[in-house]
Write a structure and sequence with these properties.
Layout: E1 3-13, H1 17-29, E2 34-37, H2 90-105, E3 111-114, E4 117-121, E5 124-127, E6 133-144, E7 149-150, E8 161-162, E9 168-169, E10 183-187, H3 191-202, E11 210-213, E12 220-222, H4 233-249, H5 253-262, E13 266-267, E14 282-283, H6 285-291, E15 297-298, E16 303-306, E17 310-313, E18 316-319, E19 324-328, E20 334-335, E21 343-344, E22 347-349, H7 358-371, H8 375-381, H9 393-409, H10 412-420, H11 427-431, H12 438-470
Parallel strand pairs: 1-2, 1-6, 2-3, 6-22, 8-16, 9-19, 10-11, 10-19, 11-15, 12-14
Antiparallel strand pairs: 4-5, 5-6, 7-20, 12-13, 16-17, 17-18, 21-22
Length: 473
């Protein structure tokens, strides 16, 4: 089959959240032409496959693309997020990205979107429905917006065996249940499992009818500490200050986690079980209280096999019936095991440069691409913040982010860009502090004083971890 030739400045592989955030900034800050390809029918990446009750875990005010607000500018008045910034639903996020594409990107005349397309490599992609092949000549760079591997329950394959007679489903199918189950078994310990448990409880399910298979307990973040409204200054910026103090004053890795929990930076579901996982899951205090009502938590490792009568785990098994619903929440949302430089000659690999904020990271990388030419300097300003998995990964990714933040603070132009960019969320909160507000000024001065010591402690702990890894058993 003959191929069609195309030409562009930037070829963006992946029309998900990071690819769109990158495109938006390049469109705003340069005169470049871009082509976006994606395997989905609509922009939004994994949001096309999300379960119907999914919402953002952090405020809508700093999600999406830089040029268009997602948040309604309201605080939730009901529910378990009451009193805090609104959390967009999955449907709202998808509608938002469709608006961005149809009302900002495409009308510019500088963006072409090819949905339902498969990347073939070497500048080639094909339409999934027709088999038509396109060859793209890229004048500037190819942007890999799929480097962070995203997995969602509705499309992933479980790592364990499931008998065909088991009532087994992803969270997507929960709202379609049409008969009363005998009980519910939630498999997984991350954000999706948390969402599924909360949804069941909100539907009036008795907590004692829920069994929660939790291979590892995780450290959680308090959503109150992520708010961007000035009223929450001492929660949000105060949490960062308390984080720095806890790290700086710690005497060991274990002591650091204890201090972070005591300072209100970390939360955990069971005070008697020490977490060994950290994925950055964020909850409100009301959500945490609801989760703690589930008493049938099974901590026997990962699932190995499931039959209609038995669920077999690493360290035991539990009895079930064909009338129990088993909810697969075992997919890990995002991972980046293969960390690489962001800027690689004629390629850009989108990754995190700030903890917990993928869309900000993509927009920031786009700004660095637009404003700086030297690749060494570009990579210095875009040090990769690796996504955490184990609890101690918090040390590595916090150290990386703090080093980035320091490097950015030394450049006047970047400080101004951060203050003006809505995806940043927090720089404006700091820059708007009245010099006469002695309490806030004292907090910021304390942060600046403790930050270097905190960074030093983090690198000390990293050396300990690296030595432990290098030492043969």
């Amino acid at each position: 089959m003959a191929s069609t030739s195309l030409e562009t400045d930037y070829l963006v592989i992946g029309g998900g959240a990071m690819g769109l955030a990158f495109t938006d900034t390049i469109l705003s800050e340069t005169d470049a032409d871009l082509i976006i390809i994606d395997q989905n029918a609509k922009p939004g990446g994994h949001w096309n496959h999300a379960y119907p009750f999914v919402t953002l875990h952090q405020p809508s005010s700093f999600y999406g693309v830089s040029s268009k607000e997602l948040s309604r500018g309201q605080r939730d008045q009901v529910g378990l997020n009451k009193g805090m910034g609104d959390l967009a639903s999955g449907n709202e996020v998808l509608a938002y990205y469709e608006q961005v594409m149809n009302h900002t990107f495409l009308p510019s005349g500088r963006v072409r979107f090819f949905p339902m397309c498969r990347w073939l490599g070497d500048g080639r992609f094909e339409r999934i429905l027709t088999g038509d092949v396109f060859e793209v000549s890229v004048r500037r760079k190819t942007v890999d917006a799929t480097h962070l591997k995203t997995s969602v329950p509705s499309t992933h394959t479980p790592s364990f065996e499931v008998s065909p007679d088991v009532w087994f489903m992803p969270p997507n199918d929960l709202p379609r249940i049409d008969r009363t189950p005998k009980g519910f078994v939630v498999i997984g310990a991350g954000k999706t499992a948390i969402d599924s448990c909360l949804w069941l409880l909100e539907q009036g399910v008795d907590p004692d009818l829920i069994q929660w298979i939790m291979p590892r307990d995780g450290w959680l973040l308090d959503r109150r500490n992520t708010q961007t409204d000035p009223e929450f200054f001492f929660d949000t910026i105060g949490a960062q200050a308390r984080q720095f103090d806890a790290i700086a004053n710690s005497t060991s890795i274990e002591d650091m986690f204890d201090r972070l929990e005591a300072a209100g930076y970390f939360l955990r579901i069971d005070p008697d079980v020490r977490p060994s996982m950290f994925h950055g899951a964020t909850v409100s205090r009301m959500e945490l209280e609801a989760l703690q009502s589930i008493r049938r938590v099974v901590r026997k490792g990962r699932v190995k096999t499931i039959s209609a009568e038995t669920l077999v785990l690493d360290a035991g098994e539990i009895a079930i019936t064909p009338d129990h619903v088993l909810i697969d929440c075992s997919a890990r949302a995002v991972s980046n095991d293969a960390i690489a430089p962001v800027f690689q000659g004629d390629k850009i690999a989108l990754q995190m440069v700030r903890s917990y904020q993928p869309v900000f990271s993509a927009a920031f990388i786009a700004h660095i691409e637009a404003a700086y030419e030297d690749e060494t300097e570009q990579n210095r300003l875009c040090g990769v913040v690796p996504l955490p998995n184990h609890d101690t990964d918090f040390i590595r990714f916090t150290a990386a982010f703090m080093m980035n933040q320091y490097n950015w603070s030394q450049i006047l132009e970047l400080r101004a860009w951060l203050r003006a960019n809505r995806l940043d969320g927090f720089s404006k909160l700091v820059s708007d502090v009245d010099p006469e507000d002695t309490e806030k000024v004292a907090l910021l001065q304390g942060m600046r004083k403790s930050a270097p010591t905190a960074v030093g402690k983090l690198f000390e702990y990293l050396n300990q971890l690296d030595e432990k890894t290098a030492t043969p058993a």
